[in-house]
DNA sequence: CAAAACCCTGAAGCCACGGTTGAGGCTGGG
DNA sequence: CCCAGCCTCAACCGTGGCTTCAGGGTTTTG
């Protein structure tokens, strides 16, 4: 989410005049703090390192302090995204940046990869309105999905908030809704998923509850593989059933 | 070491009847040589390393030699491609593979999509032996899958033959078998798929039975979309369930 | 103006990833 | 029975991507 923090940082005194602060150059510490919201593994030393690797070239004060323009920050942001979402090595990112400000290339696939991850980011919190805007789905359908518990918002401060699995679920459901498949029919899918979850829980459960952090991590990764394989298998089984349907007529 | 060598292969693997040799299982050296054409940085040790990292799991001879099925070679090929072309780290490739390359960027997803197509080309007919060589799965697991009716061969002239959905199902199951999920547990997946099929049948059934050829064709295409959306939705529901599992600790 | 907060460079260190190498020993096809 | 080919296990290695530390300069703030 692009909340683009125009927020006055604690030590922020450069915004004393109500002027648009986002025009001002930032010190390295300020940049780290801002980007820290989106990327938890950012650090001052890392930013310096990236400069060392010729990925950035901020202006300097006469005294030698780095000064980051708004553009620099954006550049850095996209570097970090490519790292995190597309797993690109710096060497490649450098080229990618040099080759014009190309953007949004494999972005779709990458975001999918993240969205489908079991290891939940917990990051996203959407209001109903945002969910509607984001998916282009009517509030009535969402209501329907909630009634049948396909979507399970959480109440925070009396407001329902949705997360990113909810969003993906809504998107997928809207596809089905086009064909008239709605809440009551979807219930069968939910129970199917619930049962699969129980099955997988039985397999990795022990490792998951292990106190050993390594074992736990491994269990989570196995869980990802299992979930994928499971969905895959179910899909193939469905395809076979459907072929029988279309074949024998 | 694996004590249970799954090779009571009933039939001699000699292709006395001049069968296409590319159906046969290969030794590691042969695999390296073949893939060496496309990937210069392949080596025997690298292939072994990838196995060590759980990216491959070829069958073994009773003596311990690795035997690579056609499917294994393809899997390896796509591993190498993801490394070379998409710079993905092995950790990510592992997941991507488990997902059965459900979405393949960059174009050619043809082979899988064909296999996943509802519109069945009844073409493929595999014997048990071919199925084993092709998928690299032990005959015992296949037997297990048959017992639980995940795989449904047809008897022709007293010989059981499998089709390509069976093959894909076996492949997906082998992924799960690695974690000890076998026949009895898989039954829940089959019934889930069956129910989804019933659901979709209700939606497109009328069109499917239409005498109007156009309407029929359209129904089939809708069915594909529906199947995809359905699987997708079930997967997301599963992911959400699993996140709850990993989250609350 | 001085202390406090922040920033600078360069060199060294660290850890994970993705393999390779080598010793010592089986396998299996001709 | 021979010998190329394969096996495991453990040690080793280069690179990438940072972090840490020492020693010292710059800016802000009160």
Overview of this structure, please?
- Two copies of one chain form a homodimer.
- The radius of gyration of chain A is 23 Å and the shape is elongated.
- The first copy, chain A, is built from ten helices and four strands, in the order ααββαααααββααα.
- In chain A, helix 9 (183-208) packs antiparallel against helix 10 (213-247).
- In chain A, strands 1-2 form a two-stranded antiparallel sheet.
- In chain A, strand 1 (59-60) and strand 2 form a beta hairpin.
- Chain A is mostly helical and 249 residues long.
- Helix content of chain A is 58%, strand content 4%.
- At the A-B interface, helix 5, helix 8, helix 9 and helix 10 of A face helix 4, helix 8, helix 9 and helix 10 of B.
- Chain A binds a DNA duplex (30 and 30 nucleotides) through helix 2.
Give a summary of the structure in a few sentences.
Two copies of one chain form a homodimer. Chain A is about 60% helix and about 5% strand.
Order of helices and strands of chain A, N to C?
Answer: HHEEHHHHHEEHHH
Please identify the structural class of chain A as seen in this structure.
mainly alpha
Task: Kindly report the oligomeric state of this protein.
Answer: homodimer
Which whole number gives the mean pLDDT of chain A?
A: 79
Number of helices of chain A: 10
Question: In percent, how helical is the residue content of chain A?
Answer: 55-70%
Strand order in the largest sheet of chain A: 1-2
Percent in strands of chain A: under 5%
Instruction: Give the largest interface pair and sizes.
Output: A-B, 75 and 79 residues
The count of DSSP E runs of length 2 or more, i.e. the number of strands of chain A, is 4
The rounded distance between the terminal residues' Cα atoms of chain A is 50 Å
| Largest sheet, strands/sense/barrel of chain A | 2 strands, antiparallel
Shape of chain A: elongated
Spans of chain A of at least 5 consecutive residues whose pLDDT stays below 50 are 1-21
Over all CA atoms, what is the radius of gyration of chain A?
23 Å
């Amino acid at each position: 989410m692009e909340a683009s923090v125009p927020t006055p940082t604690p030590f922020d005194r450069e915004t004393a005049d109500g002027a648009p602060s986002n025009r001002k150059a930032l010190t390295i510490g300020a940049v780290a703090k801002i980007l820290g919201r989106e990327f938890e593994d950012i650090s001052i030393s890392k930013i310096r390192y990236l400069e060392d690797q010729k990925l950035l070239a901020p202006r300097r004060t006469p005294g030698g302090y780095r000064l980051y323009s708004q553009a620099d920050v954006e550049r850095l942001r996209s570097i970090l995204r490519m790292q995190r979402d597309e797993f690109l090595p710096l060497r490649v990112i450098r080229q990618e940046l040099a080759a014009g400000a190309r953007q949004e290339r494999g972005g779709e696939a990458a975001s999918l990869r993240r969205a489908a991850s079991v290891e939940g980011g917990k990051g996203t919190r959407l209001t109903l309105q945002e969910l509607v805007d984001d998916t282009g789905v009517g509030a009535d359908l969402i209501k329907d999905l909630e009634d049948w518990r396909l979507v399970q918002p959480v109440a925070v401060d009396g407001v329902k908030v949705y997360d990113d699995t909810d969003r993906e679920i809504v998107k997928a459901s809207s596809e089905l809704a086009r064909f008239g498949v709605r809440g009551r029919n979807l219930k069968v899918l939910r129970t199917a998923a619930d049962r699969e979850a129980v099955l997988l829980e039985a397999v990795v459960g022990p490792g998951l509850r292990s106190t050993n952090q390594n074992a736990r991590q491994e269990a989570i990764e196995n869980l990802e593989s299992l979930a994928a394989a499971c969905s895959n298998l179910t899909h193939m089984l469905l395809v076979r059933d459907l072929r029988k349907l279309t074949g024998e007529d």
